[in-house]
Amino acid sequence: QNCNIGFVGLGVMGKNLALNLADHGYRVAGFDLDAAKIQDLLDTEAKERPAGVDAPRMVGCSSMSELLNNLVKPRVIVVLVPAGAPVDAVCHNLIEAGLEADDIVVDCGNSQWTDTIRREQEYQGKFKFFGTAVSGGEVGARFGPSLMPGGDADSWKYLKPMWESVAAKVDANGKPIETRTPGQPVTEGEPCTAYLGPNGAGHYVKMVHNGIEYADMQLICEAYHLIRSLLGYEPAEIGKLFEKWNQGVLNSYLVEITADILQQQDPKTGAPLVDMILDSAGQKGTGRWTSISATQMGVPAGIISESVYARALSTLTAEREKASQVLVAQVQGSDLSNEDIENAIENALYCAKICAYAQGFQIMRAAQEEYNWELNFSDIARIWRGGCIIRASFLQKIADAFTENHDLENLLLSDYFANAMDNRQDGLRKAVVMAAQAGVPVPAFYSALAYFDGYRSEILPANLLQAQRDYFGAHTYERVDAEPGEKFHTQWQVPGRPEIQTK
Ligand code: 6PG
Q1: How does pLDDT run across 129-141, given as a tens digit for each residue?
Q2: Domain total in the chain
Q3: Residue-number span of the structural domain to which 385 is assigned
Q4: Looking at the structure, do residues 193 and 110 belong to the same domain, yes or no?
């Protein structure tokens, strides 16, 4: 009866997070609808005890009331079940099993932030509903994830010590301190977790993390595709190139795993393994949610949206096959040397990545207004330096930029990133031109360059667009020589074209 934390749902993520907590000395009680899963866990991984620990690290429970009876009060129960209706079903079952008003239920799934906002209100008085998004996949959950908590500030004091101990850690330079040894957790370093705000703040930030993840992955895939198409390198050679890039400004987990993937051979055929994988991308929805949320708030996040569309286009396998027989590109080669092309694409990837992160942070800036949160962007960048899928060296620079100026309007305006764009944008421009001439689809690269050029333009053709709207729909426009907010309408099709000022 003295467990510190309970788990409902012992699938891969639940089991691994529970084991991680146990490694850090917390006593964990676990329940799963599938009793075999609990027994299996108790018989295998949960059996090992860290040195000096006598009591079993985990208690298996056969019902939710048994789970509640095993926990110290206020009880903390982590729910790790599929997002959506199953989360509410578990909450209702826990209430029936005797959950109390001070108890804390933590949803660690990839829930939609609007559900988290709704649930916090709906369960008020019955128990405290808290959200914590987890990034880092199964290895992250087991040995140190990035944790993005949001919810009731009072509950945070109970969760903070546990979350800080199990989260990934980074050293004083912001580099992840990694372990893969059960029972020997990392106990030093700065934890990759911070309280992000009330209700859905944590799940929202994780959703944007995933939107950025989509963009980051798509940009890497485009860089690979462009190099392969222009230079004809084999995947393994491109893998080596990614390995080299991983030593520089592009240093990141996603570049590292890409280098590894590209150098693997299919054991069955001996062909590059990547070539044996069907080019039809899956998606569970978080990237799409990010794009929808950005669009609803009027935030330009084209790179993230293009990355969602690119996955959608990839699934049109049969249609693409048909179209490839009918639609032919008029291609033109490039006269750059191989080395120049490699450099251009490396710089293109870095610039486009900066733009994608700028968009992600813009989305969160808008969301904090929309939902009345006070997000700390420096903290967000800090907790993404380790544990999560988008961990990368340059997140330290993003954290620095927001520490220097919390109200930074756009990452592109910070000295560091403005300079980086200055020094390297030539690569992005070249990559886009070469792709267009060679007929290689690089939608995220195109979008990144268009975003950069659009954002830095004092004058855009939106004046003409406003005129068009006014012409066909009397939608009115503002004049450059009048007070902001004053509306004008021109009777475009009336002789003499009188201009009418409207209120
Ligand atoms: C993470 C990942 C994780 C998962 C994605 C995959 O941060 O650990 O983002 O949450 O891998 O949700 O999403 P898709 O299936 O949509 O690619």
Answers
A1: 999 999 999 999 9
A2: 3
A3: 204-452
A4: yes
Nearest residue to 199 via CA among 146, 130, 147: 130
Is 478 in a helix, a strand, or coil? coil
Q: Which protein residue's CA is at the shortest distance from atom 7 of ligand 1? A: 135
Residue 74 CA neighbour count, 13 Å, CB half: 18
With the most atoms of ligand 1 within 8 angstroms of its CB, the residue from 132, 254, 286, 290 to mutate is: 286
Residues β-bridged to residue 477: 488
* Contact between 190 and 169 (Cβ < 8 Å): yes
Distance 209 CA to ligand 1 centre (A): 9
Q: Which of 175, 199, 223 is the last residue of a domain?
A: 199
pLDDT at 120 over 80: yes
Going by C-alpha positions, the residue among 204, 167, 218 that lies closest to residue 388 is 167
pLDDT at 229 (0 to 100): 97
180 is an annotated ligand-binding site residue: no
Tokens for 314, please give them: 């990839």
Give catalytic residues, as residue numbers: 206, 213
pTM of the model: 0.96
User: DSSP letter string over 86-152?
Assistant: HHHHHHHHHHHTT--TT-EEEE-S---HHHHHHHHHHTTTT-EEEEEEEESHHHHHHH--EEEEEE-
Q: What is the pLDDT of residues 281-296, one digit of tens each?
A: 999 999 999 999 999 9
- Dihedral sign for Cα atoms in the order 10, 13, 15, 21: negative
